[in-house]
Design brief:
This is Aromatic ring-hydroxylating dioxygenase subunit alpha. The protein is an alpha+beta fold. It is built from 14 helices and 24 strands. Strands 14, 15, 16, 17, 18, 19, 20, 21, 23 and 24 form a ten-stranded antiparallel sheet that branches. The N terminus is likely disordered.
């Protein structure tokens, strides 16, 4: 189901106050990121002022993943999540639309929803009892007679996110009501997403519930790895690869050093994947379930031999996925040194129960919070962050030069691609990051 919900932005000038200048100070980060030279200033991962500016200029204006539309089957179905550090509620209203509203009562600011997900008729603040309907409208105020005639309920509804759009079941939202459409922001990345999310004509759904865990590390470390980094696999995951290989000795050399491609674009999106005519799903029941000839007709030969199975991807800024095990996840920022990972398992609707179970268990075994690969990644990010505040460490430039200048157009693959072992998608992620960090956002135009 494809839908677009356009909501009214929070009122400007009405029921607002004027802040003194200087509270939200922005600064130029141009010298801290050199994507053309492949150089990054280490402080972008640890400086609290940079982190605060990210909230204002990255997360307040980018398309952010909210949920999968299978989580909203009936009116009143809701899911609580975050856009940056802002708590929001996504809920299907009685018209079948999905609204996203700020989870903050307009009276004293307490959350009006504390449950992770569920079904409801309205949201009621447990502090003073202000209640809001599925569109965020204020519908009940206890002791309302004590307010004078200037108080009007319609002016004090929950702040609504003005743009909510979906692509292949993935629901995104954006605080900028004038932002380019989601599909334009995805651009050529849609072709790579389709290889994961459009294999089944019946669509996809997510396993009920969300797995959550907290890691020490800046959110960008995780986002960049899923966009650009196949390089770490044979080193960081060596022991896991040995355990999962049939011989117990790890994959054969031709598999471990498999050739592939890496896509990236000007929006900061990136995906890497091996390319091989015998690419397959790792879980045996899943591999046996798929009709690869059918998929070649539904998608394309290039998608089947590339991003259909093994690979990694990030939609800028903080949504990532792994096609081989159906894992999608968000790297929620929780300060410059901490992130909270929220992960779902995506399944094709036509999958028989035994195949769906095999995929779900394989996902947990490999990229669940205690998964054999996930543990390695979390350790790496935490190690990168452990000494990030040290003086000399902060003043030591990082190298992102692998594959510099190798991106080109290749027949059959939309956009520009480089070799699999490359930092190209990482460089473009930080190029986009630098662009947004240095450009006034929609909310700054009204100061």
């Amino acid at each position: 189901m494809e839908y677009i919900v356009s909501c009214a932005q929070a009122p400007r000038g009405k029921n607002t106050i004027t802040r003194p200048e200087g509270l939200d100070t922005n600064f130029d980060v141009s010298g801290m990121v050199d994507p053309d030279g492949g150089l990054i200033d280490r402080r972008i991962f640890s400086d609290p002022l940079i982190y605060a500016q990210e909230q204002r200029r990255i997360f307040a204006r980018s398309w952010l993943f909210i949920a999968h539309d299978s989580q909203f089957e009936k009116a009143g179905d809701f899911f609580q999540t975050y856009m940056g550090e802002d708590p929001v509620i996504a809920v299907r209203n009685k018209k079948g639309e999905i609204n996203v509203v700020l989870n903050s009562c307009r009276h004293r600011g307490a959350r009006v929803c504390r449950a992770d997900l569920g079904r409801t008729k309205n949201f009621t603040c447990t502090y003073h009892g202000w209640a809001y309907d599925l569109d965020g409208e204020l519908v009940s105020v206890p002791n309302e007679t004590y307010y004078d005639e200037s108080f009007k309920r319609e002016e004090w509804g929950l702040v609504r996110v003005p743009r909510v759009e979906s692509y292949k079941g993935l629901v995104f939202a954006n605080w900028d009501e004038n932002a380019e459409p989601l599909e334009d922001a995805l651009g050529d990345m849609r072709w790579y997403i389709d290889a994961f999310m459009d294999r089944d004509p019946a669509g996809t759904y997510v396993v009920e519930g969300v797995t959550k865990w907290v890691l020490e590390g800046n959110w960008k470390l995780a986002a960049e790895q899923f966009a650009t980094d196949w390089y770490h696999v044979t080193m960081s995951h060596a022991s896991a690869l040995m355990i999962l290989s049939p011989t117990g000795k790890g994959p054969k050399k031709e598999i471990a050093e498999r050739k592939g491609l890496q896509f990236s674009d000007a929006h900061g999106n990136g995906a890497g994947f091996p390319v091989h005519p015998r690419n397959r799903f790792d879980a045996q029941p899943v591999h046996e379930y798929y009709d690869y000839d059918f998929l070649r007709e539904r998608l394309s030969e290039e998608q089947v031999t590339g991003p259909l199975t093994n690979g990694h991807a990030t939609v800028f800024p903080n949504f990532s996925y792994l096609p081989v095990n159906g894992s999608i996840r968000v790297w929620h920022p929780k300060g410059p040194n901490k992130m909270e990972v929220w992960a779902w398992t995506v399944l094709d609707r036509s999958m028989p129960e035994d195949v769906a179970r095999a995929q779900r268990l394989y996902n947990l075994r490999t990229f669940g919070p205690s998964g054999v690969f996930e543990q390695d990644d979390g350790e790496n990010w935490s190690e990168c962050q452990a000494n990030a505040h040290a003086f000399m460490v902060q003043n030591t430039t990082l190298n992102y030069q692998m594959g510099l200048g190798s991106a080109t157009e290749r027949e059959g693959y939309p956009g520009k691609t480089s070799e699999l072992y490359s930092d190209e998608a990482g460089r473009n992620l930080y190029r986009r990051w630098r662009e947004l960090m240095n450009t006034p956002a929609w909310h700054e135009e009204f100061k």
